[in-house]
Write a structure and sequence with these properties.
single chain; 11 helices; 467 residues; two-stranded antiparallel ribbon; 14-stranded mixed beta sheet
């Protein structure tokens, strides 16, 4: 595996984005052209490729307004200052703002809006200003609606937790529960301003809708035992804001090159290895969830594991390995996930490269697999989370700066790739893929497999926060 070869694939994905409105989002010509490139490379290496088609509704915001009407009239900018919560209701409300049990000092731990009692004395018709923390956005919104709130503003918590900057604008979802009122997410800074400004009156307006997305996953198999299928996956779609070269051209290009090298070396795997290029990840892990939903109980038992690679070349990186055994975060994956983690940890240790654990938080394509008892694991070099002083001391880079400052942005281009960590992670991907492709042992520890759901209350649904 070489960064040079993988970068050639990334350059092609960049060129595709440049020729297709600057992005490779699911349901667009940019995604189709990306898939055609992947298919052509796989076919040239001797693989038969297949498409798995599916459709889904994408939530869209047609109109969004957040403005302070008094005492200091200010119109805020969509995306930079606020976002509509996915599955928010529509509305156009101008009203006084009432802060609900917020905590602006100290560690800013907050249960704001999580209990009906938080809204005692809430003036019906006012806009509820709620702080992120503890419970889901949908729970906060439901309590606000029950208290008579005409709209809801949820602002970020105001601290930094592992892998999660809780200072910027909240990109959240009410999931399918939805709401009857308009709900927007904003930053801690703006939330604090609204909470501490006497007599503040705000306008919140949202007009939302749905569009039907038609798209597909790309799949390619090796020979080998179908009852121990190893799925090596990465999402090929990006966000509409940019070309998505680190997120997730990097993972897609690395598993493509792994497949190509496996074929060129003439290796026949013991276990069928399925290379999967998912679509719809950025809209809520749609493609990988669809794939798993089409599996029968027998098919699920015939899946040995899932290896997931989502962002492996961040410019301010940490070598994160998913915490399969739960030793770092207390919530393990299905039986066998500890084995996957151990393969990566032993590999990096043999190379003299430090690693750090990252949590199964539900924000990438392993989600559907672990929810159905299929072991999983993978690698990650960081997204919008902030690198700590301790991490900078071990992995280099800049403390206090995002792992990927261009996450979900126009600047996620070919110049946003760290070539050194790209090659290190790609070598680990190839090692783990070959290890599980060739093993004659059951990853789950029994001939028939097994394992169960991890039982975790996930924080994310794709790249949108649930709480």
């Amino acid at each position: 595996m070489s960064a040079e070869n993988i970068t050639r694939h990334l350059e092609e994905l960049q060129a595709i984005a440049d020729a297709n409105d600057g992005n490779r989002a699911a349901g667009t010509s940019g995604h189709v052209a990306s898939a055609e490139y992947i298919e052509a490379q796989l076919q040239a290496a001797g693989y038969e490729t297949g498409r798995q088609y599916f459709t889904y509704p994408r939530f869209v915001v047609n109109l969004a307004v957040l403005a302070q009407m008094s005492p200091s009239p200010t119109t805020y900018t969509y995306s930079d200052d606020f976002l509509g919560m996915t599955y928010s209701g529509d509305g156009d409300v101008t009203a006084a703002v009432t802060a609900v049990d917020v905590n602006l000092a100290g560690d800013r731990a907050s249960t704001s809006g999580c209990e009906a009692s938080d809204f005692e004395g809430f003036p019906a018709g006012n806009i509820a200003l709620i702080q992120r923390g503890t419970c889901t956005f949908s729970d906060k919104t439901a309590n606000a609606e029950a208290a008579g709130a005409s709209a809801v503003i949820i602002f970020n918590q105001g601290n930094v937790i592992p892998d999660d900057d809780r200072l910027g604008v909240v990109a959240g979802t009410l999931d399918v529960e939805g709401s009857a009122v308009a709900v927007v997410g904003t930053s801690f800074e703006l939330g604090e301003e609204l909470a501490t400004t006497e007599g503040v009156e705000v306008r919140v307006a949202l007009d939302t809708g749905e569009e039907v997305v038609e798209t597909f996953n790309v799949l390619a198999d090796t020979a080998g035992r179908p009852d121990r299928t190893v799925v090596v996956g990465a999402h090929l779609d990006g966000v509409s804001e940019g070309p998505g070269i680190n997120d997730n051209g990097s993972g897609s290009a690395a598993i493509l090159e792994t497949a190509v090298q496996l074929a060129e070396l003439g290796i026949t795997p013991t276990n069928r290895t399925r290379f999967a290029f998912w679509s719809g990840e950025e809209d809520g892990l749609i493609g990988s969830d669809y794939y798993v939903s089409q599996l029968s109980p027998r098919d699920i038992k015939n899946h040995a594991l899932n290896l997931n690679f989502d962002m492996i070349a961040s410019p301010n990186p940490v070598r994160f390995v998913y915490d399969g055994d739960g030793g770092a975060f207390g919530s393990k994956g299905p039986n066998g996930s500890d084995v996957v983690e151990d393969v990566f940890l032993k590999y990096f240790a043999a190379q003299g490269l430090a690693t750090a654990p990252t949590e199964f938080d539900g924000r990438s394509d392993y989600f559907g697999f672990i929810e159905n008892g299929i072991p999983a694991g993978g690698l990650f070099t960081g997204a919008e989370g902030i690198k700590s002083e301790e991490e900078a001391a071990v992995f280099g880079g800049t403390a206090g700066r995002a792992y990927d400052p261009c996450y979900h942005a126009e600047c996620d281009t070919i110049s946003n790739i760290d070539q050194g960590v790209l090659e290190e992670m790609a070598d680990a991907i190839a090692h783990a893929t070959l290890t599980f492709a060739m093993t004659t042992s059951s990853v789950k520890g029994t001939a028939k497999g097994g394992g169960g759901k991890p039982g975790k209350d996930f924080t994310f649904k794709g790249n949108l926060s649930l709480r």
